[in-house]
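Margin note from the TA: students keep mixing up input and output lines. Inputs are the sequences; the output is the structure of the whole complex. Example:
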Amino acid sequence: MSQTIDLKALEKKAWKSVFQDGLWDIYLGILLMAFAVGAWLDRQPISENMRVGIYIGVQILAMIVLFAGKRFVTMPRMGTVKFGVERKKRRHIVQLVLFISALVGLGVWFLSATLSGEGRGAMPGRWVFPLIWVLNMLMVFGLGAYFLEYERLYVIGFLYAIVIPLDVIVKTTAKVDLDMYIFLAAGSIILFMGIAYLVRFVRDHKPLNLNQG
Amino acid sequence: MIVNLAPISEIDRLIHEPARFQVMALLYVVESADFIFIMGQLGLTWGNLSAHITKLEEGGYVTVEKGFKGKRPQTMLSLTRQGRKAFQAYRQTMKQMLDEIPE
C-alpha cells in the first residue's frame, strides 16, 4: 500500500544500489594488489624511477577500471542519481577521515624514511608501524563503512589491516619473506568479491536505450 | 463512532495514483535522478514512467531536464518546490485520515 511506504527505507535502498556493481571492491582489490606489485618490484633489478612508475601505473589502472566501469557498465544499466544533503554530509565526513588518514600515513612514512642510524634506533620496536597501520586502516574503513552504509568495507578494511602485521609475523616467526603473496592473497579476495558482485549486477541489469527519452 | 472522512476530498489525485506516488516518494528522498534510475528502482516500464512524468510535469510537481552525459542523452528529474510541498501535504492528509479510522 502506498500510504505505508517507508521513505527512509526507500532512500536507503536507492543509496545502497550505488554499491551493487562491485566496482569499488574491484578498485580497492587492485589497490591492495599494487602492494604485491611493489613487493615484487623490490626484488627486480630495475631503477627506482621505473619501480615508482610501474607502481603508480597500477594505481592509475585501478582508477581507470573504476571510472570506466561506472561510465560504461553501471550508468547504462542503473542510471544516475544525486542524493540529498544528509548523504553529502556523510560523504564529506568520510573524505575528512581519508585526508587525516593520509596525513598520518605520510607522517609515519616521513619519520621512518628520514630517521636513519641512531635516529631509527630511537624509534620504538618493530610493531609500531604495523600497529599504526592496523589502527589507521580499521579507523578509515570502519568509519567509511558506517557513514557510507557500505557494509563490505568492514571486510575490506579487515583484510587491509591484517596484511602488514601478518607480513611482520611471518618474517619474525618463519624467517621467510612472503609479503608479495600476502598482499596478493588479500587483494585477490577483495577483487574476486567485487567481480562476483559485478557479474551479478550485469546479469540482473540489462542496459537500457537512453535514446528513448 | 463517527469518522470524519472529509479530508478524503482534499487528497491530491495527481499524487494518489500508486505509480505516481512512488515516483514522487523517490524524488522526495533524493535530490534528482534520471529515467533509468527511477525505472530500475520502481520496476516501471519506460512508457509507463514517461506517461506519469508528463502528468507530474504538467501539474508543476516535477522538472525535467534533458541533457547529455558524454554522448548519451540523459533526462534528469527532480521535484519542484511545489511538488515537495504537495507531497508533504499529501502525506499529512493521508496520515490524518488513516489515523481517524478505528481499528
